[in-house]
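Re-run with default settings, no changes from the original entry. Doing this only to confirm the output is reproducible before filing.
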Amino acid sequence: MSTLTVRQATSDDIQSILRIYNQGIEDRIATLETDEKDLGYMEAWFQDHQGRYSVLVADRDGIVVGWASLNPYSHRCAYSGVADLSVYIDRESRGQGVGSSLLQALETKARELQFHKIVLFTFPFNQIGQGLYRKMGYREVGVFEKQGIMDNQYIDVMVMEKLL
């Protein structure tokens, strides 16, 4: 039986984080980004996620199968207790509890880092993601209509939050 471990990401995980992020871009279910990212992009992103804005990975038997990060919600000091959330799961590992494990660990980390609230942005059509978030206690705040453009079409974006 395989073992899933959630741990702090290291620079050795950047290639796996990049692979999983690019899957999310390709699948068009988790981000408005449409162009795959390269290693330089992800290394710079990772450097910006040291300290308070952490990255965790889910490791199954030595293979990274998912990652989650706390991201700045706003650079205004009034919002210093609010973090934005990202969660990406490898295609082959979706629906296997990886997201739940990552979210649980990330919420613990967020509390340790003095965040009192997590917000996230998802697509209204991403029913699997919403199911995970609702199961973990996130609530829908509302929907931004035609918030962004993906593949030459306007896309609505749902806002969800959880008070820690």
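The mean pLDDT is 96. The first strand starts at residue 4 and ends at 8.
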